[in-house]
Amino acid sequence: MRLRARITNAGLLIKMAQSVEKLSKTWVILFTREYVHFIVGKSSVSETMQMFGQIKQDRIFEEYLVESALNNQIFVEVSAEQFVRGLKSCHQALDVKLKLAKKDGWPMLSLNITNSSRTGNRLYLTQDIPVRVLQSDESAELTEPEVESQQVHILLPPLNDLKTIAERLKAIGTHVVVAANMNGELVLKVVADAVRVETSFKGLINPELGQPDGTPAPTPQTALKHRTAFAHVRVDMRDFVKFLHSSIVNPKNVICCIVDGQSLLLYVYLGQNTDSDDGQFIYFIPARSH
């Protein structure tokens, strides 16, 4: 098993890690020949928030090598706090090399960092991040959950705006109803004992969704009869706020998909367009009845 690379875009990698850090104390990084994946959750768990992210490896690495008996895939579980702290040491470094190594018999992601002092002298630092390498039976569970066809897909307003609203709504209730239609309308609603607060947006874009082969996605049998009809889902406010922390990567496009009464799917694209190669997070938030 071998993994090594030179980090060429530490800033982006740090922001992605900080985004995932808000979701869980530990998560899984999957290194493949083409992509680096960030995984929070398991396909066998459908009652908790899950996130599956990916970015093409050449957007953040050079001299990239990954080899393993598991189809050249390496799954490592990391502590969110330790991983982010280690990466912050790379910020504005002259050179950073990453390597999967063993120290005293324990697996580590080692960051060999080269920097310069104020006097121009070279400074060398090694940051060892403890990891747990997953076995094949564990990695088999790390697949995206299956969901029903969504009735609505809509481009969200800037996440920082939604984050400000959600922080205020959080003080009122523990759940938020997210509703939208195919006529560019989005509603966030909180209902408490004697209070009902609603925020609405109009004039948003309902983007065309395609399939991996580039052909238009078929209209689901569960599609709403009218463009102005709303699909609704009630989710945990804490999950919704955690998703909004992805604003740290300053995404240009975030698509919200609603499976009426069942789940909320949120696609966060890090690049200028909806190209997952430039970086993508997919959040799966289940409905809550109570």
TrEMBL record:
Keywords: Nucleus
Keyword Protease carried by entry: no
Origin: domain of life: Eukaryota
InterPro entries: HUS1, HUS1/Mec3
Main location: nucleus
Subcellular compartments: Nucleus
Zinc-finger in keyword set: no
GO cellular component, one term: nucleolus
GO BP terms: double-strand break repair via homologous recombination; meiotic DNA integrity checkpoint signaling; mitotic DNA replication checkpoint signaling; mitotic intra-S DNA damage checkpoint signaling; nucleotide-excision repair; telomere maintenance
Family, similarity comment: Belongs to the HUS1 family.
Protein name: Checkpoint protein
Organism from which the protein derives: Powellomyces hirtus
